[in-house]
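Checklist before submission:
- one chain only
- standard amino acids only
- sequence pasted in full

Submission:
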Amino acid sequence: MKYGLIGATGKLGKEVVNVFADHNHELMFTYDLNGEWIEKEPEIIIDASLPEVFNDSIKFVEQFNVPLIIATTGLTDDNLIELKKLSESYTVVQSYNFSVGIQVLLQLTKLANEKLPDWDVEISETHHRFKQDKPSGTAKMMQEIFGEKVVNTSSLRLGSVPGDHSVNFAGLGEVLSISHRATSRITFAEGILKSAEFAMKKESGLYSFTDVVFSK
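Returned file contents:
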């Protein structure tokens, strides 16, 4: 696979480069703080950057006429509408978290919410000090499970934590906690690779990492 990477010099971008190289995929295009570099036209674009360059990502997808994997957090409602529009012509996989474990956490949270509708619920998430958006994109995915129910969410920004997420259900006399801890960004890069391989085989459309993980 010949791929392009937006945000190649970032923490996640560097892990993507390493993981893709381990699987013999070739980096052909980058766009980051150092500017634009191209060797050959890529077959797919990976966006592991910030919302500020969202429009550039769309431009490159259209320029190269290729699928997009977007791992950017902090996207606005307008950004998501634009991705939906883009997916009418291109294959797009969008997620705020490319961890397989988080996908299982989301499924378990759905089950707990169905079985424990009257219990109190709180969500908590912790990330490194440099993460700007609060709550995290993953926490927002967790919130969506509860629909219109208001669920308090606490956010901490500490040290170099890649990502901790928990949801706590409490009844009278018992507490159920479902947690996930990312110990390395490698897990996200592996998920992005899985998504890229998925996207290369799919028709145009907007897909989530849930689609990637649970597709048959």
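Reviewer check: The chain has two domains: 2-98+186-214, 100-182.
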